Amino acid sequence: MIAHNLVALPVVLPLLAAAVAVLLPPGRKPWLLATGIAWLVFAASLALALRALGGEVLSYPMGGWEPPWGIEYRLDAANALLMVLIGAVAAAVFPFAGPSVKRELGEEKSPLFYAALLLFLAGQLGIAVTGDAFNVFVFLEISSLASYTLVASGKDRKALTAAFSYLIIGTVGATFYLIGIGLLYALTGTLNMADLAARIPEVAETRAAHTAFAFIVVGLCMKIALFPLHLWLPNAYTYAPSAVTALLAASSTKVAVYLLIRFVYGIFGADFSYREMPLAWLLIPLAVVGLLSTSLVAIGQNKVKRMLAYSSVAQIGYMVLGIGMASSLGLAAALLHVFNHALMKGALFMALGALVYRVGTSRLHQWRGIGRRMPWTMAAFVAAGLSLIGVPLTVGFVSKWYLVLAAIELGFWPIVAVIVIGSLLAVIYIGRVIEVAWFEKGESDERCEAPLSLLIPTWVLVIANFWFGIDTRLTVGLAELAAQSLGGTP
Amino acid sequence: MSHHLILRVVAKFLIPLILVYGLYVHFHGEVSPGGGFQAGVLVASAFILHALIFGLNKTRPIARPGVLKAIAAGGVLLYGGTGVAGMLFGGEFLHYGVLAADPVKGQHLGIILIELGVLFTVASVMLLIFYAFAGRQKPEAQ
Lengths: 490, 142
What we know:
The complex is a heterodimer of chains A (about 500) and B (about 140). With about 500 residues, chain A is mainly α. Chain A has a domain of about 210 residues. Chain A has 21 helices and two strands. Chain A has a two-stranded antiparallel ribbon. Chain B is mainly alpha-helical and about 140 residues long. Chain B has one domain. Helix content of chain B is about 75%, strand content about 0%. Classes of the chains: A mainly alpha (about 500), B mainly alpha (about 140). Chains A and B meet through helix 2 of A and helix 4 of B.
């Protein structure tokens, strides 16, 4: 029974656990439940990924209705990579959330908070695993609505306005996506992704197909926070509770990137996206401008959390760059960076959360000498920062390496220069933090390390940054398999 | 508005009818327009009418926010539990055909149960939202 339903369990478990969490009394219990569920989900997604790595495509008819009429859950290498990513991030962030959220928000609302966190997880996993275009919209709304409430739960009152602008832009994005799906449904009469992919070539020359493509791509780019549609992101990340920021930064935009890849390559097909429609001319310039400009903006930030948020927008530029290259290698590089960036940003935001736990603020000038007071926490931040820059032996290096290879393969030398400049800008903004934290003198040298319950999950992700930077079999294997199965070149 | 005699009498007459109509929309939703969501809104509207006529302070003890929250979660669990039952009986999640010996009966049973879950959740969440907005203007009522 479990083997048969394994594809559905990662979605069903957090969905039901969210309802159970609401019924639990305030305190530690909702957190323990959420953490247990996150670990179960991670185990299930690993088991699924191993089967996908063997080249198997799992199809699950939801409710017993056969595809293409019913909703199909379909797991191939691309979904499997994403599921492992979401599962791993949740398994690391949920234990971290307990002490961090208790310090930042208190415990009286904890049943509702963890219910929202579990709903967010269910929505993300649902998008990852479903093979139905409308079902994607439903899960997109579940995870987005949960993330609006999670952002709004931040203790700063500005969290409310941040959540509100996130809500407006997120809803516009979701509506655009829905309009696109509606047009496709009117054209082809199907919502199943595989079926859509088979039927779109017949109608590829129609104006409605072009409009649908435009709506879906722009809608998803809003969710991705691609420059210049990124303005919701810095505030949402800055004012959300630390654990929520780590979860959002590590999975939310990544899932949207995956969706863009799925639609551009898997459903519309690279031929339609890059020959019929000028997608490369849209994605590559925006990615380059976004990458450079938001990296520059990140350098000027006084709040470390805001700086990392801008850096997230810049990193999204790398992924979109890989998508825009329209080659197998570029696509593999984009998928790799989706996974690897989640690891590094997850680790960075968790280290930041651990620092905020003691210091109380992420304002840089109050971090003077913090390296001496919290050496292990700050070391985690530095190690994850090195990964963000792309130092060899870290995951950041692996995905940038593949991206550079993809650019060289196509002869895009200016892009190679952009990637290198982007990395150098990352050296500057991470370097600023390191300088203040380690080389400036603080008021006291008293040790005040973050508690182990925060340090262990953070370091687990930091070590994962190095592990997958050295042993790239799982990530590169899945990414290349996914790029092949999606069909890279137009 | 409790001083309006006509409104009070009519409301007392209407509220049970609205509740029954809500249940009708629910159970008939399987074969005609309607279903758990619409039924839930109708059930909630009966309570909202009560609150409008007799005041929030009279309605709140009848449908207490804490209880409503539990019902909202219970509705989700009923929906999901029906789905899980489909798995336990050897089908897929939300496969109602396996719930009874006769697959058609199973489909009837499944759809009624999940829509009942929707009814519970929609009705109680509607009321909770109404409480949140209506209670805002009178902080002393909390």
